[in-house]
């Protein structure tokens, strides 16, 4: 659980940069020819205008809830949406960016069409960071990045893919696979740290055995205790 406290009357909410998968995707999937889509009913039914918007939920998703805790109205927009508006891109990225994609994972074994793994999201952030440096100048940009909050919610797709394939398609056992994921995760965090980020929020991975696909093997009512 992420516990956020803001002092009454304090400065503006911190800029947010969000990375991850479907738990925090706010529309990246709308711009990709991928199976990981949320552009159909009843996604978005309780959101503004009651229309699908790319969130894998009926209303606000986890990214929105975290952003609201920090004092924002909702999550910052998807990187791919901002990228398409070149004239306003540099101004908009100063308000925060959401890089998450519904099918995103820690490494390249998770693929659905045009995959945007965490590594790709970090590449996008690197480009955004460079643009911020051009806008503000190196010194102010360094302060800006260091004061931003970076949220990570990723890993479920990697574990789900492993569990669903019973490790056969991946080619090695659980312990080695988990070691690989830890290495991937730490490498990406270190890369972003090198870019000047200092404030991180890392969300844990939910029990894979409780997702609908895994529950279906137990009659759909209870979680699979083996996962």
Automatic annotation (TrEMBL):
Q: Does the keyword Lipid metabolism apply?
A: yes
> Tell me, what is one Gene Ontology molecular-function annotation carried by this entry?
hydrolase activity, acting on ester bonds
Q: Which UniProt keywords apply?
A: Hydrolase, Lipid degradation, Lipid metabolism
Q: Which organism is it from?
A: Canavalia gladiata (Sword bean)
Q: How is this protein named in the record? A: GDSL esterase/lipase
Name the GO terms of the biological process aspect: lipid catabolic process
Q: What's the family?
A: Belongs to the 'GDSL' lipolytic enzyme family.
Superkingdom of this entry's organism? Eukaryota
One Pfam family of this protein, by short name?
Lipase_GDSL
Looking at the keywords, is Hydrolase present?
yes
């Amino acid at each position: 659980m992420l516990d956020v406290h803001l002092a009454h009357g304090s400065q503006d909410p911190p800029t947010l940069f969000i990375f991850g998968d479907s738990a925090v995707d706010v529309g990246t999937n709308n711009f990709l020819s991928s199976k990981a889509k949320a552009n159909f009913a009843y996604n978005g039914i309780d959101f503004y205008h009651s229309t699908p918007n790319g969130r894998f939920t009926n209303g606000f998703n986890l990214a929105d809830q975290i952003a609201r805790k920090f004092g924002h109205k909702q999550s910052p927009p998807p990187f791919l949406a901002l990228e398409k508006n070149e004239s306003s891109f540099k101004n908009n990225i100063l308000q925060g960016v959401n890089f998450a994609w519904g099918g995103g994972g820690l490494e390249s074994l998770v693929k659905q069409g045009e995959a945007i793994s965490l590594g790709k999201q970090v590449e996008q952030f690197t480009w955004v960071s460079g643009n911020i440096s051009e806008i503000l100048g190196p010194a102010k940009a360094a302060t800006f990045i260091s004061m931003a909050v970076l949220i990570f919610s990723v890993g479920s797709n990697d574990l789900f893919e492993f569990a669903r394939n019973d490790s056969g398609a991946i080619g090695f056992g659980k312990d080695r696979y988990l070691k690989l994921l830890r290495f991937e995760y730490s490498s990406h965090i270190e890369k972003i740290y090198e870019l000047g980020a200092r404030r991180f929020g890392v969300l844990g991975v939910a029990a894979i055995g409780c997702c609908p696909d895994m529950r279906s093997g137990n009659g759909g009512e209870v979680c699979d205790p083996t996962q």
